[in-house]
Amino acid sequence: MTKLSKIASEKGISYFLVSFTDLFGIQRSKLVPAAAIDGMMDDGAGFAGFAAWLDLSPADPDMFAVPDPDSMIQLPWKPEVVWLAADPVMEGKPVEHAPRNLLKAQIAKAAEMGLQMKSGVEAEFFLLSPDGESLSDAADTQEKPCYDQQALMRRYDTISEICDAMLSLGWNPYQNDHEDANGQFEMNWDYGDSLETADRHAFFKFMVKSIAEKNGLRATFMPKPFTNLTGNGCHTHVSVWKGKQNLFADDAGELGLSALGYQFIGGLLHSAQSLAAITNPTVNSYKRINAPRTTSGATWSPSSISYTGNNRTHMIRIPDDGRLEFRLADGATNPYLLQACILAAGLDGIENDREPGKRIDLNMYTEAHKAPDVPKLPLNMLDALRAFSSSSVLKDAFGEEFMTAYAKLKMDEWNAFTQSMTKWERANAIDC
Ligand SMILES: [Mg+2]
């Protein structure tokens, strides 16, 4: 393989941003000068693991993040810097609960079964004022702001800079729009292998925030930044392949989806409550799912564990032949754990021939009472974490180390939330 120091001198690269993603989806980096990068490729960049959201202690030895050269991305807005996704190792062994390692283990398991998952994500975001408190565009006030041409073009400088960046990186972006909440946008690029999509998703979040900051704005992927407006979803489109053949496609199958596709859906439905701890990982996430109607007329997020055809009121939609759309995840989901948990639940569906039951063709926002037996998604983070901790599917797939680490750190977060006092709480109890 060509040495990165050589690529650096050919392309005018001064620095490498060696990055790993922790359990909370936060990217941790070392900025490594090009002159030192070749050594880092062998040994990794050193980190104190306890300083990130991983289940490690200050007494643990150094953790090294070993860069994956295939993930290399030259920052379009700062071309002298290259981003490299890295895999944490400790004492020569992969840190099993590190999200990118966890996803790679699931991908290897799928490969043993002769399968490859491909996916695409719709990572919605808001552009806010720099302090994050309000919309950045005071004129963005329509009741139904989705696809608003005028508001989209007022943010042209930022949106086009991000899209130009994706074009230059070869991601094949194909559309950008103003989404259903005031101040909200979505940008779509091609689907691909799940690891590639996870790396691009992680980089996309970094890029959107960076380019927004450069333009005097603040981007947020927070699930529900404003209670009356539609939240940030991260709808995920999924198909499973064997070489060049899409194994989800079957002309004879119901809605063009194969038996394998329905087994995969069966797996997602079976594990949905526990998946929510990963796909909807924050306290705020539960204000997006299970939410009341927004000012635009719909939340666009699911509240029940159900699937359907081309209908956006369910957790899983079959929009087209040969793929499914998993609509549960929100903007806070960890890009690597998102792919890993979908793959784990889907493979479980295939291995155990999980029956998804009949699809439900109701408008779940207005007609859910006609399907009273459909199970509901967790109402809050605690319910999701309890389901997560008792999931034998996730335990078998991910192992004890990850399950314990994730549950422990997320329970600490839940406890911190319950110990905080809200204005609502005071107002409702002060005169009791
Ligand atoms: Mg959308």
Shape summary = globular
Helix content: 25-40%
Question: What's the number of structural domains?
Answer: 2
Got a strand count? Answer: 18
CATH class of the largest domain: Alpha Beta
Report, as a whole number of angstroms, the end-to-end distance: 71 Å
What's the CATH H-level homologous superfamily of the largest domain? Glutamine synthetase/guanido kinase, catalytic domain
- CATH names the topology of the largest domain as Creatine Kinase, Chain A, domain 2
How many helices in DSSP terms? 11
Mean pLDDT: 96
Task: Sketch the topology as an H/E string, one letter per element.
Answer: HEEHEEEEEHEEHHEEEHEEEHEEEHHHH
Tell me what the structure shows.
- Helix content is 35%, strand content 19%.
- It has 432 residues and is of the alpha+beta class.
- It has 2 domains: 11-95, Glutamine synthetase, N-terminal domain (Ubiquitin-like (UB roll)), CATH 3.10.20.70; 105-417, Glutamine synthetase/guanido kinase, catalytic domain (Creatine Kinase, Chain A, domain 2), CATH 3.30.590.10.
- Helix 6 (194-214) packs antiparallel against helix 8 (335-351) and helix 8 runs antiparallel to helix 10.
- The chain has helices spanning 4-11, 37-43, 99-112, 149-154, 156-169, 194-214, 259-279, 335-351, 381-389, 392-418, 423-429; strands at 15-21, 27-33, 45-47, 63-67, 73-74, 81-90, 93-94, 116-123, 125-128, 175-178, 184-188, 192-193, 218-220, 234-242, 245-246, 307-308, 316-320, 323-326.
- The termini are far apart.
- Strand 1 (15-21) and strand 2 (27-33) form a beta hairpin.
- Strands 1, 2, 3, 4, 5, 6 and 7 form a 7-stranded mixed beta sheet that branches. Strands 8, 12, 14, 15, 16, 17 and 18 form a 7-stranded mixed beta sheet that branches.
- Residues 122, 124, 179, 186, 233 line the site of magnesium ion.
